[in-house]
Design goal:
Elements: E1 4-7, H1 11-22, E2 25-28, E3 34-40, H2 42-54, H3 66-73, E4 77-83, E5 88-94, H4 97-113, E6 117-120
Antiparallel strand pairs: 1-5, 2-3, 2-6, 3-4, 4-5
Amino acid sequence: MNSSHELAPPLTNLLYAIAEEDADDWAISADEDLWAGLLRDGAEIVRRLKEQIEAGAAAVGDEIDAEDRAALGAAFGVIVRRDHRRNTIFARAFTDEEELLAEWEATKAELEQSGGAVEAAEMGDSTEGPSSGPKPPRGDE
């Protein structure tokens, strides 16, 4: 049984904005062209998306596919990937925790093999990285 679902724009852009601000874990390639972030807890992600849409920060509520909404609501987590060279964002929701974590480890390994550096959320306070890339996690504020 396939426990993942590829999400479509504009949802991918909203998820990237959330991940960029507060991913549970993230990785970036050495050339900083590829970025990936892990978001856990589909219910929390849905809550944050609703906040963005209601606040008017994202006027795309009706454009989000019903199947994508359902997949996200049932998700254990989401992996968001951005290719800065091609200016593309991909996101995949996972309903199975083991599959999510296995895919996340594979994603980090892929970026490491391309010479990338991996930053864990627990590493915290670093501000290094591209100005257009993710902001490092700030801990419990």
